Structure formats: structure tokens, C-alpha cells
Amino acid sequence: MRALMSIDSGPGFWLPRQSSTTAPVVDHVFHAVTNISIFFFLLITATLLYFIWKYRARPGHEAQPSPTHNTPLEITWTFIPVVIVLWIFWEGFTVFVDISTPPASAYEVQLTAQKWNWLFTYPTGYTDTDLHVPPGEPIRVVGTAVDVIHSFFVPEFRVKRDMVPGRYEEAWFRADTPGSYQIFCAEYCGKDHSAMKAMVVVHPSKDDYEKWLADASDFIAKLPPERLAEGGEKLYKQRGCKQCHSIDGSAGTGPSFKGLWGHDQPLEGGGVAHVDENYVRQSIVDPHSQIVAGFQPVMPSFQGRLKDREITALIEYIKTLQ
Amino acid sequence: MATAEGTVAGRKVAERDNYLTHTRGFLSWAFTLDHKRIGIMYLVSILFAFLLGGLAALAVRTELIAPGPTIMSADAYNKMFTLHGAAMVFLFIIPGIPAALGNFVLPLMLGAKDVAFPRLNLASYWLWVIGASCAIGAVVAGGVDTGWTFYTPYSTTTNTNVIATTMGAFILGFSSIFTGLNFIVTIHKLRPTGMTWFKMPLFLWALYGTALIQVLATPVLGITLLLLIAERALGVGIFDPALGGDPVLYQHFFWFYSHPAVYIMILPAMGVISEVISVHSRKHIFGYRFIALSSIAIAAFGFLVWGHHMFTSGQSGMANAIFSALTFSVAIPSAIKVWNWLATLYKGNIQLNTAMLYGLMFLVTFTIGGLTGLHLGALAIDVHVHDTYFVVAHFHYVMFGGAVVAFLAGLHHWWPKMTGRMFDERLGRVGAALVFVGFNVTFFTQFVMGSHGMPRRYYDYTPQFTIYHQISTIGSYVMAAGFFLTAYYLLHSLFRGKPAPMNPWGGNSLEWHTPSPPPHDNFAETPSAEDPYDFTRLKRDPATGGYVSSSYEGAR
Amino acid sequence: MSDPAHASSPHLQHHFETPQQQFDAGKLGIWLFLATEILLFGGLFCAYAIYRANHPEIFVYAHQFLNKYWGGTNTVILLCSSLTMAWAVRAAQLGQRKLLVVLLSLTLLGAVGFLGIKYVEYKEKWEHGLLWGARYAPHVEGHGAEEPPVPKAAAPPAAPPAAAPPGSFVVERSAIRPAPPGPEGTVIAAEEQEEHLEEAGIHRRPANVQIFFSIYFLMTGLHGIHVLVGMGAIAWILVRSIRGDFGPQYFTPVDFVGLYWHLVDLIWIFLFPLLYLIH
Questions:
Q1: How many whole angstroms separate alpha carbon B256 and alpha carbon B250?
Q2: Which domains, ranges and CATH numbers included, belong to chain A?
């Protein structure tokens, strides 16, 4: 999807485009606090510079006596900041409650975060590495992580929530303007933390979104056998294989797939494995049973995460990489 | 080290015995019980750690000057920012002012001969050395890539040297506890007659508040790190969801120490500022009582706000609200101190020495850091800027613009006392200017980058952030230049600096009533305590270049 | 430095004015140190409280495998050793050297007894696989229900991974295995456990029992380390007592080691009911 320019408020000095209904309310609080801060900063700096100039040491100039405390003054300059911070707390809290409570009618997409990509599972069961949503509807993202803590962050929506293994967390937003919006991972998760990106794709209409979902969901199931390798390539890119296994021969966290098929792989601890259908299948569902020599045992198991037909599609794809 | 030599006012000065010359040889330093020597050893050691952490920072910033790989791989980058954080926090800034300046000055300010437990003090230093060696050893042996916060489950599953590093931090924790324990007992038991609590210099109040935190918070870090080690080495599973544990529990444990830890960093800094601003403007500190009590209040409240590091972690809305409200409560005493320091300048006679320049710089940079804490404490804003460069900028403004700038102020303020030498003030001012400009260019840019959504701990970034990173990196080089210049003229002063008078700046706390550098036993006779902020009887003596008290009969 | 106070008291250090000041400072110091110990253990007590509040069934179930008679005996032993320690401080104050030596020896003996019983308990746990976290693999006979090994959704802990290739640095490996597949991993583990137990006709056991044993070993282990350190300290002052170092003028080390020992005892007084006496 090409990014479409939003007709919402464009980026300012401090903040990016406002691309969700959450953004303006958050920005309002941000600007209020920033303006208060600028006011006090100028007040303090101006006073400081004035005093430095007026009371600078010079020949004939001496310090003059003055009171060393002044209770009414001290009470005033305590009381005013207290009132101000109470106000800031209240604004921050009330807006926070709104932006973290999804409406009951929200459309739900499930999220699984892993090193180093995002997997969005739609109500049809289809899984994609980007988040496609219809416009103008509240979307609730319910997610978890499979390995370490990640954090789902969409700056233009002003949305962020940690994805924690072993529990489910939620975030919600409503985006009215079609376009593509950046998703970042905002909790350090290792080598490719900064590469763990995706897009929120807001479709032009609900119908357009439904059509996309229908097409995408049936993709692998509908593929004729001779085109199964295409499906495999899509899975390779979307399901996390690409992060560690290259297709150009360069070694990554895992062995490259180029020229892999049909060859013999030396294994850690001695022994050799012939790369055939069984080897690839076993490497996917039980990767620690046979580690290639020179590599670390870090691959997660995909048992239960890839259907049989998907594994077959991957095998077909690997066969094409000579 | 060089001794005080040369001429003073045309007369040749005989070599006077002082704590530096009292005994000689490596062993006399390694096994010293003299708080002043321990302070100097700490100073040298933490400055070495600052250099290490600073070089790591320069490497990080250099990598980030362009998107994509620049000078290192992603793995190396992750280890580099971890090294920067761990070295700066655990090796430099936590021991920081208390160990390097406090150890030297505290007993002198009390008119005492030493701290309450000199052997414990020495143990504290050697524990620093052992802990630092562990941590640096971990780096040499391949590094650790978890970030200085060691969040689980990443830290319990990554194949880097986590145990060695956390063991080092554990040992360093004991070093910190021992220092805090020593200072509390010293302040309680070794005050001279006449020096009631409210007659102490404010630096001592600050060190006292800090020491309370060191003693009460650091053990929690200890148990946190032990649990992390047990998890890795034994598979205890307390933070592992597959074994029934909770990874967010680690965050609660960790921040329960690490938030109070930031007050360990800033309270002594505030104490230094109280001293420097009043002495160099020749004015009694304004609002003494408030500043003294606020040091304790900040220490106490600092224990209640740790959850503000975890607003997006999934803790309940109620917990978020309570932590947010309490966070603002800590802001108040700090803000009021700023008013008090400004009011101190009123009708003063402001000497723009290097120490004072850093002191005034503090007021600007600490204010920015503190004000942006308001953004972070506000829940709705924090959701957007948490884990972005906005946070990085905030904590650098308070930790660097606050604690390090104050450390530099204190270093310059007490340099003549510690070394018996004056440094070149002109170069001092140039260094301060470079540090100020470089620092603001580096870190103000990061506020804007962060609020635009640039996440932290990122090896690579999307193109719209490039210009910010370039500006920030250039600022870091300017800042580095300021530091190298500072190191140069300070080192130079050790060999060629003018001999320092007893009281170059006209302070009235007791450390200024003994020669520079002090004798081994600190004072020939235990001095009597006066109001440390009463400068009215101190007059400049052109003969020595220092101040003499019209009522005090001490020589030179 | 030839003032009378320093001349008459060989133990008075140069930076203190009077022996009383020195003693008071030391007292404050040891109390502060004890405060740090309370905070150290406090973290573990917090972990206990949180896990017990969230999963009371684990604690109710698992504590049955602890023997409250051994635990109770240990409690009595430590209480008695605190008595002999306090008495020893008194003996030092009164200059009763022989009594002091006997009492310190008895305290030490109590500590040995305590650790001996802990050894027996730990050995029994080890034999029955009732260990922490990833090493929990129970096979208990005659303790009520038969307990089959716990099936886990994760790959079973294999032998440690192969050594790093020659010429590279030795890299530290975590003992944690990779997480079970998918977000449902822990749910699958619990479900599989239930099915397995039902099939074998075994009455219900909650999921994640290993958490209890993790906490048990962490708390009693850390406490045991403190007992060991205490033994070292007591042995040291025992040697000094035999040498005749202590008397009414100077008994500070005995006093302070005593305070430390009382804290070690106190921590056990809390540990015992929390771990052994759950209803």
C-alpha cells in the first residue's frame, strides 16, 4: 500500500501527524505541559541571567544583606507548583483512561510478537505481518509475545503497549484516514530490535478491507500445487524465517537456504544430515534435535504455528533456491 | 603526586607535610585508612569509568550518524550501549559525588579526623575495584547485550555474559552500601560540639539523604540481581512464564532500587550546588531549613514512585494512577530548591569562576530535565514517549545536566583543597562553554526526535530521523572536546598550577579552615563550628590570593 | 595524640574522642547493616507474598512435602542458639571468659545442627525431584498420591549445548530452554497435565507447583548462606575469646556478632510458618 497523505493535522515541531482519534487528545496534554514548561524555563533563565548581570562581581561591588528566608514567599512558590502539577496529573490520568479503554464494539485483531517480527491474526484465522484495518472503526489489538518482551508502538496513533510472554495485553485505536502508518517495537529485544517494523494499513473502505481479507485468507489453501512455492516464499517472508535465514548464501543467525536442498549438512556434535522433506519438516517443528555445525541453538519451534500445508509450501520454496 | 612548591608572594615556601606526602609508596595508598586518600583513589577510578562510558557513548553516537551499519554490527552496537549505561550508572555516577568528593570533604566539614569506620571505607573502595573488574571482564570476554536494565526474559535467555556483569553490579552494590552506612554514622556521631543538625553545611544534609537511600534501596538491587543469576544458572523460573513466573515482576524488583538510585545520583549534586552557589555569590543560602528537609523528603518519596517506569507494561490502571500522582509529589521539593538557589543569588557578588559557571549551568540544565519529568509523569503523554529518545533526553538532562555538571562544579570548587593547586580559570571557562553547548546540542535534539516517535536502543532508524541523529552526534563530539580540555588543564595544574591558599573562594565551612592540601590529621586542633554560610567576616587577602577570616587566627 | 582517653584505651581508634563514642558509632553501624539484611530478604518475602496471593493453591498443595517436624526442630535449635549467644554477650560484659567460650561453642553447635537438618531436608527433596523451576521432576512415593513426572509443552531440558567452536570465547549459556510454542504454551502445559493426571486416576494437582519450590530453595538457601557466614563470625570471636581479648572494657565484637545472629534467627522465625505451616 502506498502511503497516502493524511488530511489530519500534519507533523509539527514536536509531534508527528495525528493519524488516529487518540492523537489529538494526547497532543493536547503534551502541548499544555510543554507550554507550562517553556514558561517556567524562561522565567528561571531570565531571572538567572538578570541576577548574573546585575550582581556580577566587579571592583567596588559588594554583596548586600538580604533576608535568608521569607515564609510567605516560600509558601507561595510551593503552592503554585502544587496546583499546577495536580492539574497536569489529572489531565494525564483522565486522557489515559480514555485512550486505554477500547469501545465495546471494537474490531479485534490478535497480535503475536516474536523476535523479530509482528504476526497479526485476523478473525478468519489468516496471519499477516502487517496490520490491515478498516477505516473509521475502533480496532482492538490483543497481543502477547512468544519469547521476550516487545512493545507495540504506532507513533502517529500515539499508541503503545508492551507485549509480554505468558499474558495478553491490549491496545486500541481508531484511524479515520486511509494510509500506511509505521509500527515500531519499543522494548529492546535483541539483535534486530530496530528492524522489527511493520505497517498499519488503513484501507479506503470497509468493503475494500473485507475483500483484501478474503483474498489473503484463502491464498495458500487456493494455490494449485504447481504454485505452492509462491506460497512458501510469502510464508518465508512473513513468518519469521527471513530474519535468520538468507536466500543469497550469506550466513545469518541460521544457515542460508540457498543451495540447501539435496545437500548434506554437517551437524553439531558430529554426524551429517541429508536435506530432504523430512529434514526440513523436522527442523521446523523440532529445531533443537539437529543443529547445523557452527550455529547456535536459538531457533524457536514452529509446532502448532505452521499448518502442514504451509510446511509443504515452504519445502517447495526451498527446493527452488538453488 | 607533586607537592606544594614554588613561591607564594615572592617567598620560597618550604615543603609542608600534608596527606599526600605523609607516607609514600603504592602500599601506603592501597592500604590507607585516610579518607582523603580513599577519596582521591575513588576520584581517579570513577573518572576512568567515565572515560570508558564516554568512549562507548561516542561509539554509539558515531554509529548513529547515518542510518544502516556505519562502524559496527547490530550485536556490537547492543553491547556498546549496554556498556555505556552500565559503566556510567554503576561504575561512575552512583559512587560519583559521595565517593569521590564526599569521602574527602565530609569529615573535614565536620571538623573530624576521619569517617566513623575507616576500614569499612577502604573495603568499600576495593569492592568497587573488584566489582568493576568483574563487569569490565565481562565486557572483554565478549560483552553483554541486555541494556543496563537487564529486563527479563531477554536477560535470562540471551547467550552473553549476563552473570559476570550482574555479579559485578552486585559487588558494587556492597561498595555503595558501605559508603552510605559510613556516612550516616559519621554524621550522627562525629559532629563537633555546637554543630547541631541545622548548623551543618547543606552538602552534609544531601549526603545524609543519599546515604539513607544507599543503605535501604541497594539491598533490593542485591536480591534482584541474585534472583537473575539464579534464574540463569539454575533455572529457578521466577521470571519465566513457562515455569509459572512473571517477567514483569523483575521490573518491579529492579525499579524499586533503580528509581531511588537516581536520587542517589541527584541529591549529592544538589548539595554541591548549595555550597557552590552560596560561596561564589558571597551570600547566605536562602531557605536553609527547606533545602535541608527537602533532601530527606526527596529520599523518602523517591521510594514510592518506581512504577512510573512501567506505565505501558500492563500494570493496572489504578497502579498507574497512584504512581503518576506520587511522581509529581517528588517534583515539588526539587522545584522549590531551584527557587531557593535563585534567591540566594539576589544581592550577591557573583564570581564567575569555573566552579560557579558549572553551578549556574546546573540551574538551566537541571530545570529542563526536571520539567520534562512532568511530561513523563503524565500518563497520557508517557504512553507516547515511553521508550523513545524523549526519555533518553530527559534522563541525560537530569543525570548529566544535573549530577555530572554538579560533580564538575564540586570538582573545581574543591580542587584547590584536594590538590593544593589552582587550575587555569580561562581554560576552565572554555571547557565549561564547550560542555554546555555540546551537551544541549546533543540532547535537546533528542527530545524532539523522541516525541516524533524515534524509539531508543535502536541500531538503525527510518530516514526521517537522520537529521536529528546527525546533529546529536556532532554535539557529542563538541562535548567530548570540552571534557578532554578539562582533563588537560586539571592534570596540567597538578604539575604547574599555582599553589593554592587555604581558602581560595572564601567559604566558611570547616574544610576551608585547614591548609590546602590538608595535613594527614585534617586539623591541628578541632575547630569550632560557625554558621557555614556566614561570609561577612571573610576578606580577600591579595598576598595569598585567598580569603582570610578577620576573627580566625589560622596561618596561611 | 597523647590525650588520656587514647592512652588508657588500646582499642580506641584515633578519630574517636571517647570509647563510648566509638561504641555508639559501632552500634548504629551494625543496626544499619541489619536493616540492609532485612531489605535483602524483604525482596524474597515480597515475591512469596505475590505468588501466594495469586496462586494460593500451589502453596497449600506443595507445602505438604515439607516436614514440619524437622522445621520445628530447627526453629527450637536457632532459638536456643540465640539464647546462648545473648548470654555470651553478657558473659563477655562481665569478664567471664570460660563461660563465654562455652556459650559461643554451644551457639556454634546449634548452627551446625541447623545446617545438618537442612542438609537432610534438601537431600530428601533432591531424591524426590522436588526442586526449583526447570528441575522440578517429582517422583514421590508414600506421600499421599503417586506423582508421575510432569509433562511439559516445552522440549524437555536436554544436555547442555555443545561447547563453542575452538578458538572462540567461551560464551555463557543460559539454563533456560526456549519458550514453548505459541502464546498458548503455558495453557497447553496445564491442560496436558490435567489430562494426564485424570487418565492415571490421580487427584488434582495445581499447575506450576515448581514455583513453591523455587521460593523455598531461594529463601532457605539465602538464609543458610547467612547461617554459614554467622558461623564464621562466631568462630572468629570464639578464637579471640579463648585468647582473652574480651572483657568489661571491650566486648564490642561479641555484642555485634550477637546482634547479627539474632537477626538470622528472626528471619527463620518468619520463614518457618510461612513455608511449613500453611493451612
A1: 10
A2: 1-217 (2.60.40.420), 226-319 (1.10.760.10)
Q: Do A297 and C161 touch (CB under 8 A)?
A: yes
Asked if A73 contacts B293 with a C-beta cutoff of 8 angstroms, the reply is no
| CATH number of the structural domain spanning residue B285 | 1.20.210.10
CA distance C165 to chain A (A): 7
In a domain, B23, yes or no: no
User: B192-228 pLDDT, tens per residue?
Assistant: 988 999 999 999 999 999 999 999 999 999 999 999 9
Q: A147 and C178: CB-CB below 8 Å?
A: yes
Q: Which residues contact B397 (CB under 8 A, 6 or more apart)?
A: B365, B366, B368, B369, B372, B443
pTM for this entry: 0.88
Distances (CA, A) of B344 to A69, B202, B278, C99: 10, 14, 7, 63
Asked if A161 and B312 touch (Cβ cutoff 8 Å), the reply is yes
B-proximal residues of A, 293-322, CB under 8 Å: 296, 298
Question: Is the CA virtual torsion A247, A251, A255, A260 positive or negative?
Answer: positive
Q: CATH number of the domain at C22-138+209-279, please?
A: 1.20.120.80
pLDDT by residue (tens digit) across B78-94? 999 999 999 999 999 99
Strand B538-541 to A107-114 pairing = unpaired
Yes or no: say if B88 and B166 are a contact pair by the CB < 8 Å rule: no
By the CB < 8 Å criterion, does A268 face chain C? yes
CB contacts under 8 A, B 13-72 vs C, are none
Å between A142 CA and nearest CA of chain B: 12
Is B21 a domain residue?
no
Long-range contacts of B28-34 (CB under 8 A, 24+ apart): B31/B122, B32/B122, B33/B114, B33/B118, B33/B119, B33/B121, B33/B122, B34/B114, B34/B118, B34/B520
Count of domains observed in chain B: 1
- Expressed as residue numbers, the domain containing B255 is 37-549
CA B22 to chain centre: 29
Return residues 150-209 of C near A (CB < 8 Å): 155, 158, 161-162, 165, 178-179, 181-186
pLDDT digits (tens, 9 = 90+) for C151-196: 433 333 333 333 333 333 333 545 554 445 554 444 455 556 556 6
Please list the residue range(s) of chain C that carry CATH number 1.20.120.80: 22-138+209-279
This complex has an ipTM of 0.93
3-state secondary structure chain C: CCCHHHHHCCCCCCCCCCHHHHHHHHHHHHHHHHHHHHHHHHHHHHHHHHHHHHCHHHHHHHHHHCCHHHHHHHHHHHHHHHHHHHHHHHHHHHCCHHHHHHHHHHHHHHHHHHHHHHHHHHHHHHHCCCCCHHHCCCCCCCCCCCCCCCCCCCCCCCCCCCCCCCCCCCCCCCCCCCCCCCCCHHHHHHHHHHHHHHHCCCCCCCCCCHHHHHHHHHHHHHHHHHHHHHHHHHHHHHHHHHHCCCECCECHHHHHHHHHHHHHHHHHHHHHHHHHCCC
Domain contains B26: no
